[in-house]
Every structure is written in structure tokens, then in C-alpha cells.
Amino acid sequence: MDRFVSSPLNGFKTHGLKGFTLIELMIVIAIIGVLAAMALPAYQVYVARAQVSEALNLMNGMKSAVAENYHSSATCADNQNSDHFGVAHQNHILGNHVQRIRTQTSSQAGETCEMVATFRNSNVADALKGKTLILSLRVSSGSDVWTCRSNDLNSLYLPSVCRP
Q1: Is-above-0.90 flag for pTM?
Q2: Phi-psi domain of 64 (left: phi exceeds 0; alpha: psi -120 through 50; beta: other)
Q3: What domains lie within the chain, and their CATH numbers?
Q4: Ramachandran quadrant class, 51 (left: phi over 0; alpha: psi -120 to 50; beta: rest)
Q5: How distant, in Å, are the alpha carbons of 88, 98, 112, 136, 153 from that of 83?
Q6: Beta strand pairing status for 132-140 and 13-15?
Q7: Mind telling me which residue stretches traverse the membrane in this protein (predicted)?
């Protein structure tokens, strides 16, 4: 079979080539590289936000014990050195990305108690290493009001309830 076919446009015989040229393949690879470069930072932010959510979920599980301790004794549970009235020792409260959660008296005006979650220095997003997330209790008109903040985390990584 002849590999030449006649072209109706010019009357010359051309090769019946099939497939992609090297330039076309290089263009496709470049496009994939650009898309990956745009997607990677967004994925890293997503991973960091998921790890911050773990800390917030761990602290949410402790809210009732901290509030009950405050209302019954008018002091905040301090779990730095031992278990304290239903609040486990700070090193016993941990997650995959959270090293510890400490409960203590808040230093902020108007707040009573706070829980401070400290992120690990390894196996965690770089933006979170050693940083803290704080959940504070404020008693207002007999109601418990919890607020979330961080002094060292970028607000990009905070859940919407924690953003200023």
C-alpha cells in the first residue's frame, strides 16, 4: 500500500502521518504544569484548614467540662500539671496534628477561661508548625459565650467562626 496520498488542495502527494508532533506534546505538558502550579497552593491551604478544624473539634469536645468547672468553682481548670476536675492533663489531649490542649485562666479582659491548642512541629502543614489556636470562655448575662482566635496563625487558615 502506498503511504502517499494525493491532496485535493495542491495536487502534490503528502505523507499520511498520524499522531502528535513533539511540539504538540510539549505544549500539553506545559499546560499541565501551569495547572498543577495553580492547584498546589490551593490544596496546601485546604490541608492546613482541615488540620485547624481538628484542633477546634477537640476543643469543642472540652467546652462543657471547662464551663462546668468554672461555674462550680469560679476558677478555670488548669491542666498543665495534672487532670483537673474532669479536664484531662494537657498532654493527654492530642490529635493527629495537635500536640496538646492547655486550659488556663484567660489573660484577655472580660474573658474567664481559655483553651490553647498547640500544633505539632512535624506531620502538620508548615504554616501551622508550633502555632496556637485559642478558644475563650466569656460569661455574659448568665450565658456562656465562646470565641475563637489566634495570635500567630494567618486568618486564611482559620475557620469562619474564628476570623475577625
Answers
A1: no
A2: alpha
A3: 22-162 (3.30.700.10)
A4: alpha
A5: 5, 18, 19, 19, 28
A6: unpaired
A7: 20-43
Which cell goes with 19?
499522531
Question: Cell 502550579 sits at which residue?
Answer: 37
pLDDT in tens, 102-153: 988 887 777 789 999 999 999 999 999 999 999 999 888 878 899 999 999 9
Please give the full DSSP string across the chain, using - where no structure is assigned.
Answer: --SEEE-TTTS-EEE---S--HHHHHHHHHHHHHHHHHHHHHHHHHHHHHHHHHHHHHHHTTHHHHHHHHHHHSS----SSS-BTTB--GGG---SSEEEEEEEE--STT--EEEEEEE-SSSS-GGGTT-EEEEEEEEETTEEEEEEE-SSS-GGGS-GGG--
